[in-house]
Structures are given as structure tokens and as C-alpha cells.
Predict the structure.
Amino acid sequence: MKFPIEEIKIGHWTDTEAETGCTVIRFPKSVVASGEVRGGAPATREFELLAPERTVENIDAVVISGGSAFGLSSAIGVVEFLEESGIGFPTAQGAVPIVVGMSLYDLGVGSSSIRPGADEGRIACLDGENTEIETGRIGAGAGATTGNWRGKENLSYGGIGIASAEVEGVIVCSLFAVNPAGDVIDEKIAESFIKESFELSKERENIETTELMNTTLGVVMTNLSLTKSECYLLSQSSHDGIARSIFPAHTRMDGDAVVAVSTKELDGDSRKFDIARTLSVFVTEKAIRQACV
């Protein structure tokens, strides 16, 4: 598929045998970004600088990787790739690329000894020059699963999902790596499903927490001009989309995190901001469900 905001470049590196990978989202100059973590067990890099009160407003890329905390090293390859082009936060000694990293736990799916590193992050950058973007079990979603909270016998495949929507010129797009402990649910979830799921999870009360490592990670992007504080609110709306499409969401063993990015192409007002926040919920739900098709 083609991404609606052409200036944003998305690329993957995938190891299909080891069932792991990384996905890089590169942004045009001077985008504004913020984000929020709601899961109990995040694996992140440079996420703290996204807080609205921090000095840096702009980021250059987001890397979503498999490999748990090991996979965060893939961001180094992206930093080096951007440095070679003089991209980054300006300092007296040169540009310092601002790259946010988020990683999901896939070590129990394929090979636990193969994880994305700096070289793989660089390869994903180069793949971002392609105009067609793949989804599903690709990149950071190569080893993604869902439904772990009900036992490994109930696992289903997760993956990478992308969705977008436009209303009154406001474009909101999302990319999610879907690897939750919970289940990706249909819009009309039956009460019986919730009850039966809790009965299954009750049987696992004494299970080691090391078997319950999961995460849903995403980036929601808009052409609407937003402040850093407004980007933070946009990420919060995206988390609502996670909660609407995954049951249960934001568990203690999930690392659920969302980065929200504004390319500042469209002048905004309060009405357009309301539209963007509403669309953020919608495209998050849609991307998460699309990842699991």
C-alpha cells in the first residue's frame, strides 16, 4: 500500500526464519512529536524526551523492533544513517539525530538469539525508499502474536497494520505493531467471550510472568499543525483505540506505547484538532485489526 503522507518514509527489515524484524518510520524536517506509555512493561529508547515539558520538540525517526530490549540497538543504525545526511538536532558539534525506539517481545516465537541490530536498522532505512509498504508479518511484526493471556494454545498471529482517514482536509494515519497479551476483538464483542476468557486466564494465575511478555506499539501521524502538548493528547486518543480493539489492553506485562507526530502542513483550529483526535481512535482500531487479518 502507499502511505497518504508522502514525506514520511517507512521501511522494514525482516528475518522470516527467526521471526523477528524492525520497522523504521522516517519523518521530514521539523515534525513535532510527543507520546505516552500505558503498558506496565515498556522497552523504549529516548521516549522520555517526548514528554510535553521536555526541551526537544522535533524527532527524526521512530524505530519499532522485535527482540525485546536487545532490539533497541537497531536505532543506532538509524542514527548513523541520518547523521550521514546531516539530519538531526542542531548542536555546535553537528546534528544529533533524534530517534525514538520501541521494542516488542518476540523471543519465544522464533529464534531468541537473533535480534535486529544496527545493521538491520540501516537496512530498514534503505527499504523506506520504496513507495509500496508491506503489512502483516513483516518488520517488527514478523514474530508478533495475540491472545497470550489465555495460554499459548490460544495464540493467534499479530503483525504490522496501517490505516488512515481524512475529514475536512485533516489526515491521520497510524502504523501499529500488534503483539498484545490480550485478544484483538471484533467491534461487537460477545459478553460470553469475556467471561470465558477470564475463566481461561484464571487457570493461569500461577504462571511465570516471563511467559507473558507482550506489547502493542504504534505511531499516529497527522498533517495538522499541532503543538507538542497537542501531540501528547493525540497519542492519548490513540490509546483509546487500543482499548477499543484489544481485550484486555494495557496489562502489567504489556509495554503499550504510542508516539504522535505532526507534519504541520495544515493550519489548525479547535474543531480540526477534535477531528484529528477522533480519527486517531478510528485509525488505531483499524490498523490493529488490519494487522491480524
